[in-house]
Amino acid sequence: MSLLIAGLIVFLGAHSLRLFADGWRTHTIARMGVRSWKVVYSIVSIAGFVLIIWGFGLARQQPVLLYTPLAWLKDANALFTLVAFVLLFAAHAPPNHFKEKLGHPMVASVKVWAFGHLLSTGFLHDVILFGAFLLWAIVNFAISRRRDRLAGVVYAKGTLAGDAVCIALGLAVWAIFAFWLHARWIGVSPFRHG
């Protein structure tokens, strides 16, 4: 479990610098240069991500059950994940209503993904992983939206065409992941209970 926790600290810590140490981050970028900063940031993020995967895999070998989710919550998680994929694409798609209204759809995507997984899984390693991401996303979203309001940020008007792109891409990638990749990569089929 310690590797999982260490990975979460490194990965989410790196992704929290703008939230809690923006002045230090800005100063460091100015001193190092944008390119060097991106290299170091990427290395730290990848190292954290690898630790999360490794630590989660090890923790799954000695599971500690905290609660048993209802079967319908496991099915509902598939819908949460679908919404998360749509929001993920909304962050980079043509102007869409998701980004117009939320401002930070990628962070909202993490919130929805983590919350759905907390409802559908009940082992300690799941609670640590998804709980950490949910807490990070809640704090990140609140701080980012407050920063937007203070700065008077207005996001581009959404279009139905942009919404359609987000939904189509989100649905397609969700289907590939849900029906094929999740079982291959994670070892769990989202639609089989037992």
Describe the structure using short key phrases.
mainly alpha; 194 residues; single chain
Q: Give the N-terminus to C-terminus distance in angstroms.
A: 24 Å
Number of helices: 9
Which value, in Å, is the CA radius of gyration? 18 Å
β content, as a range? under 5%
The chain-level mean pLDDT equals 94
Give the SSE order as H and E letters: HHHHHHHHH
Sequence stretches where pLDDT stays below 50 over 5 or more residues? none
Largest sheet report: none
The figure for the number of domains is 2
Percent range for helical residues?
Answer: over 70%
Look at the helices and sheets and give the structural class: mainly alpha
Q: Could you say which overall geometry the principal axes of the C-alpha atoms support?
A: globular
Give the beta-strand count: 0
List the helices and strands and how they pair.
Blueprint: H1 2-14, H2 17-20, H3 22-32, H4 34-60, H5 71-90, H6 97-102, H7 105-120, H8 124-151, H9 160-186
Written overview of the protein:
This protein has 194 residues and is mainly alpha-helical. It contains 9 helices and no strands. The longest helix has 28 residues. The protein starts with a helix and ends in an 8-residue tail after the last helix.
Short description:
The chain is mainly alpha-helical and 194 residues long. It has helices at residues 2-14, 17-20, 22-32, 34-60, 71-90, 97-102, 105-120, 124-151, 160-186.
